[in-house]
Design goal:
The protein contains nine helices and six strands; from the N terminus they run ααββαβαβαβαβααα. The protein is α/β, with parallel strands linked by helices and 228 residues long. α5 packs across α8. The chain starts with a helix and ends with a helix.
Length: 228
C-alpha cells in the first residue's frame, strides 16, 4: 500500500510510516477445540478438512480447485469448509454442484467462534485475487495452522516469501490444488512453516505491538511539533 501511494504521487516514501496490523490473538494461540465444524456437517473426525475463506466481492474470490486426478476434489476423505459470505456465494455453490462436490463442501457463512473454526481445519486456504494484509491468515498462523495462499498484495510479506506458508500464483487452480494436497500430507516442512508462522504473527501482529507502535508514532510527531 505504501508503494502504491508513492507510485500515485500521494507522498514520498519517507513521509509514510508503515504500522503493521495488530490483532488480539491470545484466544487462538492455545489448545483449540476440535470437531465443531465436522459435527455440524456430519463428517468423521478422521477426515482431513481444509478451510476456504470465501470473500464478499468478486476481486477477492477465486474458484474452488476442481476435482480430478491429484486434486483435492478427487479425495473422498477430504471435506471442504467455506467460511464467509457475500455476493459470490450463489456462484460458488453452483460451481460446487457442477463439480459434484456438493456432499463434501459446507458453506458456513459468517462465524464468530474463530477458535472452533481454526481448531477444526487441517489447512487454511486464501486464494484472493487482491489483498492488503489478510486477517484470516494472521489468525490461522496464530492457531499454528498450515496455510496456502495466492501471491498477491501483502500476503507474500506476511508469509515471508514462502517461509511461513505455501504461496502460489493467482489464477492458477492446478498449482493451488497441488499445494493444498502437499500440505494435507502433514509433512514436516508444512509443520515447520506453521510453527514459524505462529512465532511471527504473535511477535509482529499482536494488539499490544500495534498499541506500542501507534503510541510511539504519536509521541514522535508531538515531539517534532514542539521542536519546530
Amino acid at each position: 500500500m505504501r508503494d502504491d501511494l508513492v507510485g500515485l504521487g500521494i507522498a514520498e516514501a519517507g513521509r509514510i510510516r508503515v504500522v503493521p496490523l495488530g490483532l488480539d490473538l491470545a484466544h487462538l494461540a492455545g489448545d483449540l477445540p476440535r470437531g465443531a465444524l465436522r459435527r455440524r456437517r456430519g463428517s468423521r473426525t478422521k477426515h482431513p478438512s481444509w478451510g476456504w475463506w470465501a470473500a464478499s466481492c468478486r476481486s477477492r474470490t477465486a474458484h474452488v480447485p476442481p476435482g480430478g486426478a491429484d486434486r483435492p476434489g478427487d479425495r473422498d476423505d477430504v471435506r471442504f469448509a467455506l467460511v464467509g459470505d457475500g455476493e459470490e456465494r450463489p456462484a460458488l455453490e453452483a460451481l460446487c454442484r457442477e463439480m459434484g462436490l456438493g456432499s463434501r463442501v459446507t458453506f458456513f457463512g459468517w462465524r464468530r467462534d474463530l477458535a472452533a473454526v481454526y481448531g477444526d481445519l487441517d489447512v487454511v486456504v486464501n486464494a484472493s485475487r487482491n489483498e492488503g494484509t489478510p486477517v484470516a491468515l494472521i489468525e490461522a498462523l496464530a492457531a499454528s495452522r498450515p496455510v496456502v495462499a495466492t501471491r498477491v498484495g501483502g500476503t507474500p510479506d506476511l508469509l515471508g516469501g514462502g517461509e511461513r506458508g505455501r504461496l502460489v500464483p493467482p489464477g492458477e487452480p492446478e498449482e493451488l490444488a497441488r499445494a493444498v494436497l502437499d500440505t494435507l500430507t502433514g509433512s514436516e516442512a508444512a509443520r515447520r512453516r506453521a510453527q514459524a508462522g505462529r512465532e511471527h504473527v504473535l511477535t509482529h501482529h499482536s494488539s499490544d505491538r500495534l498499541v506500542r507502535d501507534v503510541d510511539a508514532l504519536y509521541r514522535e510527531l508531538r515531539a517534532a511539533k514542539k521542536a519546530a
